[in-house]
Amino acid sequence: MGSRFALLRLRRNLVNILLGIKKLFPSLDLSSLRKLPRDAISFLAASFANSVGMAIMWPLTTFYVHNVLGQSYGDAGMVVFFQSLFSVFGQLVGGQLYYRVGPKNMIAGSFVIASLLLLLIAATDSWPLYIVCLSLFGFANGVAMPAMNAYVGFRWKEHRRELYNVMYVCNNFGVSVGAAVGGLVAAVSFSLTYALTGGTLLLFAIFLFVFIRGAGRADSAENESTAAASTATLADKHTYNRRALLRNVNLYLYLSLGSMFYWITFQQWSTGVAPYMEENGLGMDLYSLLWTVNGIVIVIGQPITSWLKRRRLGNTISKQMLVSSLFTLLGCLFIFAFHAHYVYLVIGMILATFGEMLLLPAILTYLSERTGANAPFYMGLNGGLSNVGRMLGPLMFGHAFDLWGVNAVFLLGTISALIALLLFYTHRHVNRKPQPQGDGTLRPAAR
What we know:
- The protein has helices spanning about 1-25, 30-35, 40-55, 60-70, 75-100, 105-120, 125-155, 160-190, 190-220, 230-235, 240-245, 250-265, 270-280, 285-300, 300-310, 315-335, 340-370, 375-405, 405-430.
- It is mostly helical.
- It has a single domain, classed as Up-down Bundle (Growth Hormone, Chain: A), CATH 1.20.1250.20.
- The longest helix is centred in the middle third of the chain and has 33 residues, at about 190-220.
């Protein structure tokens, strides 16, 4: 009974937050929120709270490594490299173990481990231990991601388009709040940022354990083939023929490589812009404000992206990916040409944010709708390759900044954005003929 009241309270808080945003920005369309099931709203509320906690820490990694641990910007890129490398392994493992372990154990268990690692970081200032803990954190967090995204697509199948988009908006608004808070908290203590993030992640893990267990009990009475069924039932119902899935190259390869280069481009904000701002006397508060701008644009820019999706320019998932790449490329070109003043970085962030808004929900929607019961596998594969971009970007940009300065960082980011655009175009070209993969219920893979 207590957990039910907690879920209702979380749902009420999220609705109040969004209604407050609606009063501030009357043009914002929240009609999609009303169509979602109540338990989906509870899930969104907890996910929003967790995104706030996570954002307190992650934008400040470069500052923490350089200012507190006394390492170079190249070393900061290296530690993010290891975190992303282990996240690649985690996503690949998570995508393949979904039906063996079950979503409850995978998601909640991984987040518990991740939270404990962050709390350990908060308790020490050892550089070698920091590398180990952050790498294992990347693995644990990576294991949970494909399972969590697939669970959403399976559990609320008929609402997944709206849910992926609303979940993206809520999470990123949480990131903007957390990033703003993170700059203030870090001014007091960097260790406190890791402690707060670890604490919120632990609470989120407990919530998911209770929530998914309750969902599984309800679903077992209604529908045996839901994603929250017991682990044994899941394993019996579905097995992967990995070779057959990997041979379907056109379905995932160009999309995943495009995602990889997109995330390489994205890393210039943390591993290029951050040290550039510090060198020019702009503090952590202004850097955190960039991410606040990112979150605000994600919220108030929804009418614009909705308009684009209704027009011929972006009325399909593949077109949305192309339009998103164009926005990202324009943002990169802008900050490459104009970055002498802070306001230009803000404008570049706004352009890049519109690219992000169109791309990330579109990828999850595409994989859910086109790959059916194989969605966890392909989400893990896509997430793994995307994390290669998260891994290479900081390493590449960190050393480029140390050797040649910020102009080299922005040039490499622009080239990466152009490659992503070409790959998404290739993906659209080779997938012109639709190949339905089923409705997302659990069933044996074709052999």
